[in-house]
Design brief:
about 180 residues, alpha+beta, 5 helices, disordered C terminus
């Protein structure tokens, strides 16, 4: 199947070989990406997290720092990602008692030539993996789910939002799915 330039996979050259995309001709702009995901667990595990009495300590505090570190280290983990000077990383965790889950939302920003969607996704995944790591002794059946980009702003392709809703409160939107 032949692809037009707009729908071709950009991380492959004409011979199908993987390469890092050349972004040198792109304009530097303010780039923002928001991503979200959740981890479902037993109600008793959620209660431990909320009370701060998990054996390993403040689960969400540690997970927040891990998520920020995840955003900063994305280029070390994803082979063709550009290392980016991030200007802001905000990570929020929301407790969703009815669904017995924790929702993680990350917003990542930079001023540069390429977007920060991968860094936002990396932050969410690492934050949720840290929750799993800190609680696995009491609940090995936790499930990480629904990780996705909510929106991106900036760059040549412009702004994009997930068609599923208003992102003024991403944790509420994730809880509704």
């Amino acid at each position: 199947m032949h692809h037009s330039r707009s729908d071709a996979l950009t991380h492959f050259d004409a011979d199908g070989q993987a390469h890092m995309v050349d972004v040198s001709a792109k304009a530097e702009t303010h780039r923002v990406a928001r991503a979200s995901g959740n981890i479902r667990m037993q109600p008793e595990t959620l209660a431990l997290i909320e009370s701060g009495t998990a054996k390993k300590g403040d689960v969400l505090g540690v997970a927040r720092v891990a998520a920020i570190q995840g955003a900063k280290r994305t280029a070390d983990l994803i082979p063709l990602c550009h290392p980016l000077p991030l200007t802001r990383v905000v990570v929020e965790f929301d407790i969703d008692r009815p669904a017995s889950r924790v929702v993680c939302t990350a917003q990542v920003e930079t001023f540069g030539r390429t977007g920060v969607e991968m860094e936002a996704l990396g932050a969410v995944q690492i934050g949720l993996l840290t929750v799993y790591d800190m609680c696995k002794a009491v609940d090995r059946g936790m499930v990480i789910d629904g990780v996705r980009v909510l929106e991106k702003r900036g760059g040549k392709s412009g702004d994009w939002s997930s068609p599923s809703g208003d992102w003024s409160s991403p944790a509420d939107d994730v809880a509704a799915t």
